[in-house]
Fold each of these.
Amino acid sequence: MVGAGATLLGPITVGAEARVGAGSVVLRDVPPGATVVGIPGKIALVQGKAIEPPGPGVVPLPDPEAMAIKALSERLVALEARVAELSRGSAPAPAGAVEDFLHGAGI
């Protein structure tokens, strides 16, 4: 599979079940089962497994979505602990108090 906008310069052979990332510029043959990405194209995966080491100058980038999920998970744990703490230290709300509060707040 060759991704959108990828460029293969010269008589390049793309092996069986190989992948070329969108926008990549491939200068050499792609072996079977490999995934090539970048400019110039470099093999990043073989049979779905990362090549180690990735090479000089390759810096792992932060994953903002993973960081946001981690922060939300930590916040959830803290809030649940706080709710449990408040629940232990107080008597149950009188019947109808919650409904009165919600209706008074327009909820």
Amino acid sequence: MAEEPDESLDILRRCYFATRVGVPMAGKTLNDAIAFNNAHADVEMPYFNQDIWDLIATTPTGPDDSQPSFGNMTYNQALAADQSFGVNEIDAALSQFNLDAVVTATDNPA
């Protein structure tokens, strides 16, 4: 089943900005927030920049647009590959080796 990341992400963005009250970005858009942050960088971003927001604003949002962060696969191709890996690789390994779970050490808590 194909996903529509552009629609759901845009809805989430609009809902987030629509819920802001009493702040300069109330009812605005992501691009408005980026412009505001750039205009007030000394106050809004004294320690960090907004690389993630800039990336999001410039990333094609269609489900069949090539995505650099997915190795130039489309969103739907990456989703299918992820689902296939889970079903065809992880589940097959669990079954083949008669395992109930996969456990691994971690570096630190998130």
